[in-house]
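Most newcomers find our protein records easier to grasp once they have seen one. To make this concrete, we reproduce a full record directly below:

…
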Amino acid sequence: MISAPGPSFSEVLTSSGPPLVLDGGLAHQLETTGHQLGGALWSAQLLGDDPEAVVAAHQAYFEAGAGTVITASYQASFEGFARRGIGPDRAAALLVRSVELAREAARRAEARTPGRALWVAASAGPYGAMLADGSEYRGQYGLSVRELERFHRPRLEVLAAARPDALALETVPDADEGRALVRAVRGLGVPAWLSYSVEGGRTRAGQPLEEAFAVAADAEEIVAVGVNCCRPEEVARAVSVAARVTGKPVVAYPNSGERWDAGAGAWRGPATFSADRLAQWRRAGARLVGGCCRVGPEQIAALAREVRPSGVRAGRTRPAH
């Protein structure tokens, strides 16, 4: 961007400053503004159909106070696009576009409020996200670590070449897939975080969190570890384990706390996401904080106010690549 470059994403993570604020649920914001995302590509469908809607959704989170947005590529893969009749060249272009659209939102936010530290993380969801059958919440797809690495590497290469500030390896349900992703990002030249989806103090596949986080402990490409797409009540313990096992900065962006009733096609139960939980997450070691499913700009704005109650901004906007 037009501002002078400041410290890198990794440098800010390891600084003594306040945590970085992530966005909330991108699909949630898109659905709130009237977009139907029932297809297998989910929000990635709009990369081709309505890219301006994606920019606007990212902007909403920047304006709410997020300093980092995650691209609309969670459910984007060469295999997933192929199922919709989209060839590899077009699929690669759409993956690159996901980063470009987030950068455009950052440009617009920077024009409105110069001097902010704005970042773009390119999302890579788990293998189950491509299947679009809910298996990312179960894990253990019957594939080897080597097979999972072969699935992830091509799109990670494309996303890394688009020069995001980080790769978000997110909603990972299984320690074996975590191990595959750690291997898949080697040599790409872009820092990454590895974030598990957890339930009951274990990965969705049932492994102990100590085992899951340990796969990233010695990986220099992985600059942060943590959890997302889980209940807020799961976060504090998981963050503590992640920090203890890896010694790395920790990321935490849970869901609203509501539960999806697949039979009724509706969300049930109370929302328990609250900015009041931030102090506990920070004490446990969280350095990147935000929200996932059903967490919108209003909740992210409250979180941002807790992070910087005085409204002080840190750093400078990163240049567009």
Remarks:
- The CA atoms of residues 170 and 216 lie 13 Å apart.
- The two ends are 8 Å apart (CA to CA).
- The mean pLDDT is 91.
- DSSP finds 13 helices and twelve strands in the chain.
